[in-house]
Design brief:
Strand content: 15-25%
Largest sheet: 10 strands, mixed
Distance between the termini: 48 Å
Order of helices and strands: EHEHEEHHHHHHHHEHEEEEEH
Number of helices: 12
């Protein structure tokens, strides 16, 4: 087995999205390396790899670079199938997927971000505020956060109530009533876990433990489970940017090239120059390259790292991503 399974996680420690992947790797006991990135742009390590995608985390396996936690978790399930955390029964798979969509696409996380206490130091850092505005495409001015926070808290209280009165109502330990924490728990818990650990984020009068005892017990149980798993998990290898870039440049691809779905509505062809970017956040930054593969769930682009000049494959999910052919003729006129 290659060192740290050829896996490098690019993240910064307080990213709530990165927690999803870290928790998964920890609960599975999967050995990996990490390369800590700045919380705000620029991120020169990723730029050196030819990656324009600006969201965190990213995960590389060899010279394949996976973007978006939904795709990252799916790939880890596929690469390490023995002991996978994902559901096996169709009805449980449906719950797992619906929880992912509820939290990310259904607005729970975006409301959690709007509920951050305005006195947080980062929200008073002009560089961070500017970066968040580029990331989200909306104002992060302190007065706008204060104005929008009550509405966000109202939506979050409804989300807490949904968990308390439905999925956790019968006193089960885990979302799917499994013997241990599953992928469904990771899909559901992360914004609630994040906010419960931020002082001042959840007013006790609205979100007290006496109001939502089952939700808080679930959060505490999950935290204890992750802590215990971390104690026995392989030590995480910390790589500097230059080390991570060199490692990736010398690695093989983790996946074969793949094919382009001839029935895909976009009617793209293998080898065509395309660009791909997220449509919900981070949409000002587009990856560009030759189309390697296109399936119902994923698009793969071939681009070249600026350091080492080796080809890398950048993987995006199809959900909330847009793919367009690059018009070479219009480029030449600019």
């Amino acid at each position: 087995m290659a060192p740290h399974n050829d896996i490098i996680l690019f993240h910064y420690p307080f990213s709530p999205y990165a927690r999803r992947v870290i928790w998964y790797l920890t609960l599975r006991g999967i050995e990996y390396a990490e390369c800590i990135q700045p919380a705000a742009l620029p991120r020169e390590d990723l730029n050196a790899l030819g990656v324009k995608y600006r969201r965190i985390p990213l995960l590389s396996i060899g010279r394949d670079i996976y973007c978006d936690t939904r795709l990252i978790l799916q790939k880890l399930e596929e690469k390490f199938p023995s002991g996978a955390l994902g559901a096996s029964q169709p009805d449980q798979k449906a719950v797992e997927k619906l929880l992912e969509k509820w939290i990310i696409d259904g607005g729970v996380f975006s409301r959690a971000a709007q509920a951050l206490p305005p006195e947080m130091p980062l929200l008073n850092d002009p560089k961070w505020v500017k970066d968040r505005e580029d990331y989200m495409g909306r104002s992060w001015a302190k007065e706008d956060i204060v104005k929008g926070r009550p509405e966000a808290l109202a939506h979050l209280r409804e989300a807490f109530e949904l968990l308390e009165s439905t999925l956790l109502a019968d006193g089960r330990d885990w979302i799917l009533n499994t013997p241990k924490a599953s992928l469904a728990d990771i899909e559901a818990i992360w914004p609630f876990h994040w906010l419960s650990g931020l002082e001042g984020a959840l007013p006790p009068s609205l979100f007290g433990k006496e109001t939502f005892p089952k939700v808080y017990a679930w959060i505490d149980r999950f935290s204890a489970t992750v802590k215990a798993a971390k104690a026995s998990a392989p030590k995480v290898t910390r790589l500097k940017g230059a080390e991570a870039i060199k490692y990736i440049a010398q690695a093989d691809f983790a996946e074969p090239g793949g094919e382009v779905d001839a029935q895909d509505p976009l009617a793209l062809t293998k080898g065509q120059d395309v660009e791909s970017w997220p449509t919900d956040s981070g949409f000002n930054h587009r990856d560009r390259g030759q189309l390697v593969a296109l399936t119902r769930h994923e698009v793969v682009l071939k681009t070249q790292a600026k350091v080492g000049h080796k080809d890398v494959h950048i993987h995006h999910p199809r959900t909330n991503f847009r793919i367009r052919p690059v018009d070479k003729s219009s480029e030449s006129k600019l």
